[in-house]
Amino acid sequence: MLIGLVISTIPSRSHEATGGQLETANNSVNTAFSSVYRAEQSGGDVSALVENLNTAVSLIQKAIAENATDPNAATADLSNATTIAQMVSLNSTSASTNGSMARQLRLYGSLGTITATLGIAALAYLKGDRVYRRLWLYVYRNHVVKKNDE
After folding, report:
1. Residue 93, helix vs strand vs coil
2. Alpha carbon distance 136, 130 (integer Å)
3. How many CB atoms lie within 10 A of CB 59?
4. How far is residue 89 from each of residues 37, 40, 102, 112, measured CA to CA in Å?
5. Helix or strand or coil: residue 46?
């Protein structure tokens, strides 16, 4: 009887997902969203990151819905959502770097094209008449001109 009394006075721990786990998952998703936004602003390809972020959000919503009926599954879903959000945050850094490098390459390619176009235009302006005459003479070198009155 004494053992039963001691056992009944010990507070039983609930297996429900705690508010701290939910807050951690939400904070992780918010941080990941900010990272993905910065990566997108840098020109990175964030489509896969957005899909993973949506998966994390749906896991949080699922955990909230199932917390009363299956607390162990809710805890697992919140843990998975936190892990996914942290991976998205890590991967958004490389997406941001890749986007910045691609933007610089496009800029350098554009500057090279502009420089080449201006160089060709300057050469055509300065040496165009000489090139045209030589080309005309090369094309019509065997052409014989006859007078109309003969």
Report:
1. helix
2. 10
3. 23
4. 10, 13, 20, 35
5. coil
Q: 21: which 2 tokens?
A: 């786990």
Main-chain phi, psi angles of 3, to 5 degrees: -65, -40
**Domain for residue 29, yes or no?**
yes
Flag whether 119 is in a domain: no
pTM over 0.70: no
Contact assessment for residue 105 and residue 49, using Cβ atoms and an 8 Å cutoff = no
CA–CA separation, 59 and 2 (whole Å) = 45
Whether 124 is covered by a domain: the verdict is: no
Match 């610089």 to its residue by tokens.
Answer: 104
Could you tell me the residue range of the domain that residue 75 belongs to? Answer: 17-105
Alpha-carbon distance 86 to 29, whole Å? 8
How many domains are contained in the chain? Answer: 1
Residue 74 CA to residue 69 CA, distance in Å, equals: 9
Examine residue 48 and state whether it is found in any structural domain, yes or no: yes
Q: Where residue 85 falls among pLDDT bands split at 50, 70, 90?
A: very high
Calculate mean pLDDT across residues 123-131.
86
